[in-house]
Amino acid sequence: MAKKVLFVVTSHDKKGNTGEPTGFYLGEVSHPWEVLHNAGYDIDFVSPEGGKAPVDGFDLTDPVNKAFWENKEYRHKIENTKKPEEVNPADYSAVFYAGGHGAMWDFADNKALAAIAAKIYEAGGIVGAVCHGPAGLVNIKLSDGSYLVSNKKVNAFTNEEEIAVKMDKEVPFALENKLIEHGAKFEKSGLWQPHVTVDGRLVTGQNPQSAKGVGEAILKLLK
């Protein structure tokens, strides 16, 4: 398998009707990136629309965020993401869906991204996601017609966390509920507690606090 990992980030930059900006959550990209990059993995970025990905959670006091943002190669990649049709799934040993509220609007119904992830998974690769990133997992179907998440232990940003950030009325669906509807065995911890779930080659994390742990779990499986 290639020593390459595909990161999926949102193209969506508004929180519903609030008018507030959003995008991918910087720490949910930078922390797994640091783990995998330091282990010698090359990372590419894809988004539903390609091009410059909108960023949220822009905190450069976090040294890992700063290292990612000031890395010329990766700054160029995140500002010039691939379109789904430009991606060859055979090039990657893992795919990772980063969160950020934007993901709730443009991940779940993107059939091209779902097909890429299904191909990577069915070729023996790893699928990972954190926080709102699992929105990209809800509709992935495998070649036997079953949902990827069916009968698997999964976690994601919880209903309680969505209420805590006052976004439960704005998001197009409740992520936790939708995963359960499609057969996931949903796990959760308290608000903002790190929680990483691994079921075979599926790795999910609950919130931004879980991002590094998801990267570490993906790396462990890659090895």
TrEMBL record:
Entry-linked InterPro entries: Class_I_gatase-like, DJ-1/PfpI, Prot/Nucl_acid_deglycase
Pfam families given in the database record: DJ-1_PfpI
GO biological process, one term: methylglyoxal catabolic process to D-lactate via S-lactoyl-glutathione
Residue ranges annotated for the DJ-1/PfpI domain, each copy included: 27-220
Molecular function (Gene Ontology), one example: glyoxalase III activity
Superkingdom to which the source organism belongs: Bacteria
Record flagged with keyword Lyase: yes
Presence of keyword Transcription regulation: no
Alphabetical UniProt keywords: Glutamine amidotransferase, Lyase, Stress response, Transferase
Any one GO cellular component localisation term in the record: cytoplasm
Family according to the record: Belongs to the peptidase C56 family. HSP31-like subfamily.
Annotated protein name in UniProt: Type 1 glutamine amidotransferase domain-containing protein
Source species: Flavobacterium cyanobacteriorum
